[in-house]
Amino acid sequence: MLFLDVISSILLISGVFFGLSGAIGIFKFPDFFTRIHAASITDSIATILIVGGLLLQTSFDLNTVKLIFILVFLMITSPTASHALAKSARHGGLLTMAEAKEKKQEKTG
Amino acid sequence: MAELINLVLLAMLALTALRIIFLKDLFAVIMLFGIFSFLSALIFINLDAVDVAFTEASVGAGISTVLMLGTLALTGRKEKANSHSSFLPLVVVCITGAALIYGTLDMPDFGDPDNPVHQHVAPRYIEESPKEVGLPNMVTSVLASYRGFDTLGEVVVVFAALIAVLSLLSIRKETEQDASESGLKSHHVLHVVAKLVIPLIILFALYVQFHGDFGPGGGFQAGVIAAAALILYALVFGLPNAFAVIGAKFLYCMASAGVLLYASVGLFSMYKGGNFLDYNKIAAEPLAGQHYGIIIIELGVGITVFAVMLSIFYAFSSQTARSNIK
Question: How far is CA B284 from CA B211, B265, B287, B292, in A?
Answer without folding.
Answer: 24, 15, 9, 11
